[in-house]
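Q: I have 141 residues here and want to know how they pack in 3D. Can you give me a structure?
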Amino acid sequence: MINLNFTLIIQIINFLLLMYLLNVLLYKPVLAKIREREAKIKADQAKAQDLQTQVADKEAEHQDELGKAKQAAAQEKKALLMAAKKQESNILDKARAESAQIVDNMKATIQSEAEQVRQALRAQMTPLAQSMAEKILGRSI
């Protein structure tokens, strides 16, 4: 059988006092620090999530701007190519016109020289023909 005596009561009081002191000095401050750390971790996680969202938004914005820049560059390239083709066409047309002008001038020069040669030959053929006719006929014409 169990005897209850005065030492048991002292031990119970001692135990309760120890529990109270441990609770006040150790358990509550440790729990407070744990809750504080959990709150800080949650705040940091929320901040990290915010930063990830901002990064994703900036990346999407960057991709959008990059796409617009590529599109603008493509349009500018197309415009430059069209301008170059137009300039090429103008240069070719001018060259064709100049070559046609040169050919026409050459034809006119050749015709004029041919006409001069014909006239010179006609002028020379008349006395030659007359002298040949005189030799053949044996008399003067």
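Q: Anything worth noting?
A: The chain has a mean pLDDT of 91. The radius of gyration is 59 Å.
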